[in-house]
Amino acid sequence: MKYLCLVYLKDAKLHAVPDRECLAASERLRAEGRVVAAEALHPVHTATTLRVRDGTLTMTDGPFAETKEQLAGFYLFDAADLDEAVSLASRIPPVRSGSIEIRPVRDLDPTA
Amino acid sequence: MSVDADTAPGDIAATVATLFRRDSRKVLATLIRLLGDFDVAEEAMQDAFKAAVEQWPRDGVPANPVPWLVSAGRFKAIDGIRRRARFDAIDGAGDVATAVEAIPDGAARWDEGEEIADDPLRLIFTCCHPSLSGDAQVALTLREISGLTTEEIARAFLAPPATLAQRIVRAKAKIRAARIPYKVPDAGELGERLASVLRVIYLVFNEGYSASAGSSLTRADLSAEAIRLGRLVVELLPEREAMGLLALMLLQESRRAARTGPDGGLVTLEAQDRARWNRAQIEEGLAWVERALAPDLPASRGRATATTPRAGSPAARFGPYALQAAIAAVHASAESAGETDWTEIVGLYDVLVRLQPTPVVALNRAVAVAMRDGPAAGLPLIETLLADGQLQDYHLAHAARADICRRLGRHADARASYERALVLVRQEPERAFLAARLRDLPC
Question: What ipTM describes this predicted complex?
């Protein structure tokens, strides 16, 4: 059975654990064959939130902000750029009733 | 390629300064595409102009300075990247192979032609990308396209310079991290994306337009800069709405001198001395309105890129800016306030209200109806809007009701509305105007 484990950090603690430690842990977990997908993310100010209401797509800067909305699912896309990511994300049906937050993935720096 | 190899360094410096004023943004736009990063490109652009100042006295001013500058900037940037890669390699840190791979392909065609011609457009669309906040779009546009410093932008928007600087840094970081593409949008999205650009330009214009009493030069410069940006966009993308916006800005700007009384007070459109309107701006504005509303747009000047939308495309007919400009044109064409063709204005609002069914547009239409048919005709429309609740906090709605009640001799109602408007108004000249109107009401 699959479990989605989400990592939450305060701004000040974003780099509390050095990337190389995260990479090492990730490698060990992957070696055990349990990891389906794992990525570090760029911080919240790089996010873009999508909503479609009445057939119109609106893009807002930043993360989804509705406190009443809860995480319901995820897609991890491979896209050439943000425009393509938006195009793909806008095809996720709940975009019409909720919000889709698009956050770019960050490559871990083995030297950090 | 070189001309006048014996030109004195002082003349060269003047030539370079002129080129910087005129073309530095163009050079920057191309360097951003070649180097893939705003900050790297900015540094490269500065280095290119420095190189020009150093080398042109010796080699002469090139016949085509822009490609020369782009080439010089690119060379310096690549040189810098290579040297930093070597440095990192010595440190044992960094991946030299990755760094070298990051250097743009030497075969990239950056010389004159379609590619380089589209770069300023790419820059504008990127700065105004809808995934950036409105504030960030404005700040980035003024920084990268207008070339204003962060201090100048901060001053113009009455924001702390540190906040502005942070906003721009964050915007660039997002462009980098989220990989906002540096391109002109595809035909299908062009209309919407252009709307984003025009919104930014109009925002800049309005910051400059709504000057407080004792308006600083900076505010008037902002409107002038917005008009300049408007012209740039029309030149690059002769779309109706771009023309409409340019027309609207020119026509509004034409009234700047007449809008302020000798005491710095606000003078309404009705009361303005039309002799003080800028005729050249009016003429140009009227010409652009005509083009924006013309049945057939002439073919785009020379540039046949795949992204140039066809004149008859769905987004092409009357847009909100073109309509607002048409309304402004009716005012501009009236020799005196009394000669204003309010019937035409109401007709234009009837169309605008369908395109932009917002309470504010409905309010403006109601005011026009009052002018055409008398205050008694406009009052119920305004009261309905106020009753709807959406304009409760909009001082101009209450000011409009107050004015109509005043004309109808309903002084108690006028007083109530002026008082409500005064609670809500934020700009000093407007406040003073409303206060005076309130004072002048017979008891």
Answer: 0.94
